[in-house]
Amino acid sequence: MINLKDISKVLKGKEVLTNINLTLNPGEVTLLYGHNGSGKTMLLRMICGLISPDKGELLLDSSFKFGVIIENPTFFLNETAFYNLNYLATINKRIGDKDILSWLKIFNLYEVKDKRVKSFSLGMKQRLALCQAFMENPDVLLLDEPFNGIDDENLEIVYNLLEKEKKKKKIIVIASHVKIQVEGLVDKQIKMSNGKIV
Questions:
Q1: pLDDT of residue 118
Q2: pTM of the full predicted structure?
Q3: What's the pLDDT score for residue 184?
């Protein structure tokens, strides 16, 4: 479980999060939705520890492993898809080449694993970002606009994977500027505006 109690954050003189109270439970998909600048991305950054609260408490298990897509995923554009995932995998040393190739297959990127990422479409880059978020079997998935540019066939794959991860009792948070209507996937819908839960 992750608990946010009365969380507030000020950046560059502006309050970007105000009195956030939220509980995220294992086996639950939470959707954060709201216009750009509503505070969704800041909240994801707070949950995974990229920023810390100025006020309030963030309570979570320190052993949690995170799989994260926040804003536009950054890759080495002149390197291949496989190189990028392999480079990230060497940081924590939790998975090997076989696992990476298996995830590339799942996201329909195996055939282009040796192509440079700069040649990829937006949807392909997004699927590569999803690969890196899922591949190390995280306890918590934080996905900022994860469906950007993905076609219907691959969207089905992503939805099915999220269903599987939910059954494994993962904590899953999806941020989107629109409400997502996926039958049975989302358990909690939370609207944000101007850094507040409304």
A1: 96
A2: 0.93
A3: 78
pLDDT digits (tens, 9 = 90+) for 49-59: 999 999 999 99
Q: For residue 72, is it within any domain?
A: no
Q: What is the β-pairing status of strands 28-33 and 171-176?
A: parallel
Residues 30, 33, 36, 37, Cα dihedral to 10° = -70
Q: What is the CATH number of the domain that holds 31?
A: 3.40.50.300
70: left (phi over 0), alpha (psi -120 to 50) or beta: beta
Q: Total domain count for the chain?
A: 1
**Does 100 reside within a domain?**
no
pLDDT < 70: residue spans in the chain: 181-182
Q: Are 22 and 4 in contact (CB under 8 A)?
A: yes
Q: Is residue 23 part of a domain?
A: yes
Contact of 54 with 16, CB cutoff 8 Å: no
Contact 176, 152 (CB under 8 A): no
